UniProtKB/TrEMBL annotation:
Keywords: Cytoplasm, Isomerase, Porphyrin biosynthesis, Pyridoxal phosphate. One of its GO terms (cellular component) is cytoplasm. It catalyses: (S)-4-amino-5-oxopentanoate = 5-aminolevulinate. It comes from Blautia faecicola. Pathway: Porphyrin-containing compound metabolism; protoporphyrin-IX biosynthesis; 5-aminolevulinate from L-glutamyl-tRNA(Glu): step 2/2. Homodimer. This is Glutamate-1-semialdehyde 2,1-aminomutase. Its EC number is 5.4.3.8. The keyword Isomerase applies. CDD domains: OAT_like. One of its GO terms (molecular function) is glutamate-1-semialdehyde 2,1-aminomutase activity. Its cofactor is pyridoxal 5'-phosphate.
Amino acid sequence: MSRSDELFERAVKVIPGGVNSPVRAYGSVGMTPRFIEGATGPYVVDADSKRYIDYISSWGPMILGHNNPEVRNAVIRKAESGLSFGAATESEVEMAEFICENIPSIEMIRMVNSGTEAVMSAIRAARGYTGRNKIVKFAGCYHGHSDALLVKAGSGVMTAGIPDSAGVPAGATQDTLTAVYNNLESVKMLFEENEGQIAAVIVEPVAANMGVVLPKEGFLKGLRELCTKNGTVLIFDEVITGFRLAFGGAQERFGIEADLVTYGKIIGAGMPVGAFGGKREIMEVIAPVGHVYQAGTLSGNPVAMAAGLTQLKILKDHPEIYTNMSHMGDKLYEGMKELVKKYGKPWKVNHICSLGCIYFTDQDVENYEDAKTSDTEEFARYFRYMLEHGVHLGPSQFEAMFLSNAHTEETTKETLDIFEGFLKAE
Ligand SMILES: N[C@H](C=O)CCC(=O)O
């Protein structure tokens, strides 16, 4: 029995499903999870000392590759002064100043501990600011696991086929309206039917929790215009796209400014961090300035701030990182597309910069319903083949592949060779 299997046997006895987040489970691909012992650059190593090219990148934050020495040393140095004080620190001010100075739409920001918290808090701020209750989200977008957002959600809920989670009372989602990604008409209709009642529209500017779905030309601009016209807060959930599509995230990439932006893991470089920020007049509804309560014992944790700020400064000082990752993304994902064509498969590869995914369908994927046409049995065969040959992917059709700046021409070539092996074996 492998060490991963031994660990899994122990894990399932004490952790539901043996994992601390459902997306780590291998059930949908008919396997038990690989337990990871360590990681460096583009590689992870499992408990049986097998090395894999990693495309999970901790679901995004390891944009510089695993175990970056500058980030690691910043963490070690900061930890020498203590781990948490439950009091204000200079580190959190530095982080807030850095983001406000560098992201034009953000005048004020508050740190939290995860993307879920960031989104929950941004929505509460939008409701407090507008005095309205309803929110619009898009089917297949995932904004963490808070009650109000678990309606037709992507990521693990889509994988498990439970888009409307049990345990969420109807009352918690009665004000959540669902629109179709890339379909402005569906949003217009909701505005017409709920005139003067919509506090916020929240969107992943690139939907990266139902695979990878790109916004069609004019979709984000249309959302911006509808929100402005209706006095509704536009929230960009940049937990995945922030500091990844470009230094200024999707806002920079698509030239659209949101009213509020949420960030997650990437601003902690692998430490548990999230944040929400935006226009001063909205952010000032937050207590203790305003009457919208939001809090967190560990929020702005100095060690997490040190890790995150070190990563963000590296990204700012090295714009060539984005050029490199885009180049690598084109090579890898376009390479996959060419191979798919070469072997006469109808499958679709969607990608933008470092994010990409393959759908096992003959249909272009522009929204949740399209994504669901992918053959998940075929995905499972692909996943198992890639894993067995040394490529570590998210164990779900509906998760993205994340390239980091540590991936190289060699890792791309090796991945494409393995992918070709899979196509040949099909
Ligand atoms: N797709 C999710 C976040 O981006 C995966 C992370 C998780 O749920 O553990």
